[in-house]
Amino acid sequence: MLPDLVYTRRGSGTPLVLLHGIGHRREAWDPVLDQLAEHFDVIAPDLSGFGQSPAFAGEVPYSMENACDHLADQFAAWGVSKPHVVGNSLGGAIALELASRGLVSSVTALSPAGFFGPVSRFQALIPLFLLRLSALLTPKPILRFLASQEWGRRLIGWILYTHPERHDADETYGDSLALKHATAFERTAMAGIHYSFDSQVPVPTTIAWATKDRILPYSQSKTARQRLPQARHVDLPGCGHVPMADDPELIVRIIEQTVEAAEESKAA
Predict the structure, then answer these.
(1) How far apart are CA 57 and CA 61, in angstroms?
(2) Which residues, 6+ apart, have CB-to-CB distance to 67 below 8 Å?
């Protein structure tokens, strides 16, 4: 049996599950969590081996099949059936995979993984591994000092956010520790080397791509449009790879629009 996920749950109403990216944690959704909880039963888990959630046992591969089966089990444990799902980066790819299996009611994918070209695949993996290495090698007191300085927050977060200086010291330090202690990072990244999303998605879907994404460049949105022509495709102007922090209001609006379209379709 795979280990249960640690999660934050807030609000009431229609279930909405939020999935973060590789090396991150559930607090990535904090900029939008309270606003979403005004209208939804919001569940934000730490994915297995990230944040506070334990990793899969060593013999269990970090495949999309296992990730989706595990989340389906977690949905049942949380008492939700076919929730609406929002995902960023790795979380966006998982959200799309869940949808392709008929396990969710709608998908909002924010700069999702899985639409790489031959070069851009490594354009994503190399900086991610460098981020991971820097977090591993930097002592905690130095990470805390860097997080306490505006220039330090820019240094730590420039590749993920357009405005990393807007984060406070505790948020930045917490993110750095999450990356430092992400026990599933290498296994997940290695599984992603050959991953590509090429399935059909039978539920209302929005693909929203950050125009200033330095991990999964905006050019990949063209591939997403080609593979998923029936999805709604929108831009996230001026946002970086983790857009929830760069433009929370826009992200909330896009999520609400996707869920509304799905609920109207279901009612019809």
Answers:
(1) 8
(2) 47, 48, 94, 97
Which residue, among 15, 13, 24, has the nearest Cα to 243 in the 3D structure?
Answer: 24
pTM: 0.96
Under the phi-then-psi rule, with left for phi > 0, alpha for psi from -120 to 50, and beta for the rest, what region is 51? Answer: left
Q: What is the pLDDT of residues 135-153, one digit of tens each?
A: 999 999 999 999 999 999 9
Q: What is the 3-state secondary structure (H, E, C) of 168-225?
A: CHHHHHHHHHHHHCCCCHHHHHHHHHHCCCCCCCCCCEEEEEECCCCCCCCCHHHHHH
CB atoms within 10 A of CB 243: 29
Cα 238 from Cα 200, distance rounded (Å): 29
- Distance in angstroms (rounded) separating the CA atoms of residues 112 and 241: 9
Rounded-to-integer distance, Cα 190 and Cα 201, Å: 25
In the CATH scheme, what is the homologous superfamily, with its name and number, of domain 7-116+195-267?
Alpha/Beta hydrolase fold, catalytic domain (3.40.50.1820)
- Dist CA 106 CA 202 (whole Å): 9
Asked if 53 contacts 46 with a C-beta cutoff of 8 angstroms, the reply is: yes
- Candidates 47, 48, 44; CA nearest to 16 is 44
Q: In the chain, what are the domain boundaries? A: 7-116+195-267
